[in-house]
Structure prediction request, 365 residues.
Amino acid sequence: MRRTTEQFRSRRKIPHRIIAVALMAAVIVSLLSLTVFAQNSFVITDGDFMTVHKSYSTDPDVVLDEAGIELSEEDTYTTSYNDGIGRIDIQRMQMVTVIYWGEPHVIGTYGETVKSLLNRMGIVPGTGDILSCEEDTPTYDGMTVEIVHKELSLIEYDKTVPFETKYYEDPELNPGEEIVLIEGVEGMIHYTTQVVYENGQRVSHTVLDKTTVTEPVTRLVVRGPERAIADQPDEPDHRVLETENGTGAEEHAISEGTITTVSGTSYTYSDVLSVTCTAYSCNGQTGTTATGTVARVGAVAVDPAYIPLGTKMYIVSNDGEYIYGYCTAEDTGGLIKGYKIDLYFDTFDECWDFGVRACTAYILN
Prediction:
């Protein structure tokens, strides 16, 4: 019985060892668990923003999700660890528009200088090109960069200069008749210019030098005067009146320097000429005087060397039978020489009746 009891007691000591081993294992597992579930510190940079986040995870995707930071499919990040602190640097996709030769190109970048971006695109601005920003400017999302391609070109050309035409009236010519005295000749000017092109389009044109090769020659033309009927001067009514007593005294009164007609119209005169008067008529046809006016009663023909065209006169016959009255020197004639005046009448019969008479012409003021 004793032996059996000792054996029994000996066997009861075994469970205590097992318990001790189990306890030790539990402690080790507990220590390992504390190590596995310890928090990690992360510094997250997203452009100009920085966030510090603690996480039990070391997976960057989990850490960013815990920090509430979302990434698009084009965004990316880099990680690093230093002194037990993890760094997550986010690179957001930037969409930059580059305008070259007027054509827009949209390109993605994760942040670089404008020069680096253009190099990636194979664009090297020339000496005269204009860049909308400095080459070392950092890119950003939504940025627009424009390169204007500029070219300078020297162009020489000749340009004609039109000639001027000068007209001179000759009362001896018929209305509308012209005689060219000197033919006009165009001139020539040589130009040297600088043309500026931007993106292939001309934007400026500067004359650097202008040289006259030949001067234009003015065209000289003499022509007969032409005046429309509407341009005729307003004048008093003209009448050829024959007095009953042959003196014409009752038709006008002439005093020193003044003529007063029976109708009450007064004229002042500055000179008195003794002239020989003849008569002419278009007999119902429309004629034109040497000065371009319509031939009519009151338009008389003179020798301009003695009586200038445009002279206003009051004419009466010396025999007192005719008072031609107010008239203007508007016409000339090959047979009208010296102090001779050709008076216009409406009909040939009146011309025959008048014939040739000695008259007095009062030169009106």
Observations:
- Residues 96 and 107 are 5 Å apart (CA to CA).
- The two ends are 185 Å apart (CA to CA).
- The longest strand covers residues 266-280.
